[in-house]
Amino acid sequence: xxxxxxxxxxxxxxxxxxxxxxxxxxxxxxxxxxxxxxxxxxxxxxxxxxxxxxxxxxxxxxxxxxxxxxxxxxxxxxxxxxxxxxxxxxxxxxxxxxxxxxxxxxxxxxxxxxxxxxxxxxxxxxxxxxxxxxxxxxxxxxxxxxxxxxxxxxxxxxxxxxxxxxxxxxxxxxxxxxxxxxxxxxxxxxxxxxxxxxxxxxxxxxxxxxx
Length: 211
Description:
Elements: H1 10-21, H2 29-45, E1 51-56, H3 62-74, E2 79-85, H4 94-103, E3 110-114, H5 117-123, E4 129-134, H6 140-146, H7 150-153, E5 154-162, H8 175-187, E6 191-197, E7 200-205
Parallel strand pairs: 1-2, 1-4, 2-3, 4-5
Antiparallel strand pairs: 5-7, 6-7
Helix pairs in contact: 1-3, 2-3, 6-8
């Protein structure tokens, strides 16, 4: 059974449907709410055409649906979500992602792409991504390869989310945070408005007129 697109109105309705459809994921409610609100805020003020919201790592489709709901609720007709995951990985769940997006009635807002996330970033034009969620492989080496794409591929004023950011944790859990912090040490002057809620971290890319 699928829901009509018009039925998804607001974050509370999204959470109700999330429970009803039993979509798995490691994000907690406050993280989802922050992401939903910030994406809607950015899309509400954006005048760009062809606004790209990209997520790296889909798991079972939770964040693809959250981002799709935010795009839908923003009523910004120029925005779309691309959910990228390498479904040749035995731990991937493409069928669950497809089912979740369909159950939420978000097929018109979310495209599911079977591709390595680094290959996808290579293929993107510079200054083409408005919102980026980094939540794929959590090894230090993989995140270290991912973060150099942020500045060239993100639009000025764009929003970057990083999940499982725990630089102060024990070594095996600190890999994402360590790689991101090392990148910020070199490029942090090009980012603004950093925020954090538990393992969830976000920042914006500076625009030319930002002080």
